[in-house]
């Protein structure tokens, strides 16, 4: 689809001035900038810079079921059911990172991959970006699931429409999970996926 004419920039952009590093670890860097706003006003802007690209994977089996992963999340202090997710180096093909995350978190591999989503996450305070893939033709990986040392993961296999309803009802609150389920549902409804995949998802 051609980009609509109204999707264009207006006015002046933000201008970054002197940068002051605040904090850094292997995953993020927090920096404060002396900045000039698009209005011309002087501002101090704190930015959380991410060192990895987020990847999200929606695995869909031939019977229309998908896999969700459950884990305790530190920032929100709660338990979250999500599609498989992770991250990979910014200079690496994100599909490579997606293949690794699918195998590590679910013990699955996919023969068919399709990028269906690119999003900016919390773009008022971070520069984190994400890529989402639909994974089909699912098979058991030779090595099984291999979570990180800090991950205690559970899995549940549910019908796609059931996962979608849980997201719409607010039971699934992870942003990438909600976005991927809604985008995949739209594509299935609009005939933008393989017919067999769409039929299975919409059943």
- Average pLDDT, rounded to a whole number, is 95
Strands of the widest sheet, in order across it, are 7-4-9-8
Give the number of DSSP strands: 10
Specify the biggest β-sheet: 4 strands, mixed
Order of helices and strands: EEEEEEEHEEEHHH
Which terms summarize this structure?
203 residues; 3-stranded antiparallel beta sheet; globular
Structural notes for this entry:
With 203 residues, this protein is of the alpha+beta class. It has helices at residues 94-106, 160-168, 175-189, 195-202; strands spanning 15-24, 28-36, 42-50, 52-59, 65-73, 78-82, 85-89, 108-120, 129-140, 154-159. The protein has a four-stranded mixed sheet, sandwiched between helices. Strand 1 (15-24) and strand 2 (28-36) form a beta hairpin. Helix 2 crosses helix 3 (175-189) and helix 3 (175-189) crosses helix 4.
Brief synopsis:
This protein is 22% helix and 42% strand.
Mind sketching the topology for me?
Layout: E1 15-24, E2 28-36, E3 42-50, E4 52-59, E5 65-73, E6 78-82, E7 85-89, H1 94-106, E8 108-120, E9 129-140, E10 154-159, H2 160-168, H3 175-189, H4 195-202
Parallel strand pairs: 4-9
Antiparallel strand pairs: 1-2, 2-3, 4-7, 5-6, 5-10, 8-9
């Amino acid at each position: 689809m051609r980009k609509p004419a109204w999707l264009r920039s207006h006015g002046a952009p933000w201008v970054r001035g002197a940068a002051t590093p605040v904090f850094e670890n292997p995953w993020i860097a927090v920096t404060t900038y002396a900045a000039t706003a698009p209005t011309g006003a002087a501002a101090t802007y704190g930015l959380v810079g991410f060192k990895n690209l987020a990847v999200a994977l929606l695995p869909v089996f031939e019977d229309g079921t998908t896999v969700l992963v459950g884990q305790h999340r530190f920032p929100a202090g709660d338990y979250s059911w999500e599609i498989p997710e992770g991250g990979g180096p910014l200079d690496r093909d994100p599909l490579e990172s997606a293949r690794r995350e699918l195998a590590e978190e679910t013990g699955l591999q996919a023969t068919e991959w399709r990028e269906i989503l690119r999003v900016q996450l919390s773009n008022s305070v971070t520069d984190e970006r994400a890529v989402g893939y639909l994974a089909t033709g699912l098979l058991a990986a030779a090595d099984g699931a291999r979570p990180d040392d800090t991950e205690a993961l559970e899995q549940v296999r549910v019908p796609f429409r059931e996962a979608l309803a849980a997201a719409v009802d607010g039971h699934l609150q992870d942003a990438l999970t909600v976005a991927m389920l809604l985008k995949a549902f739209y594509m299935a409804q609009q005939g933008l996926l393989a017919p067999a995949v769409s039929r299975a998802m919409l059943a």
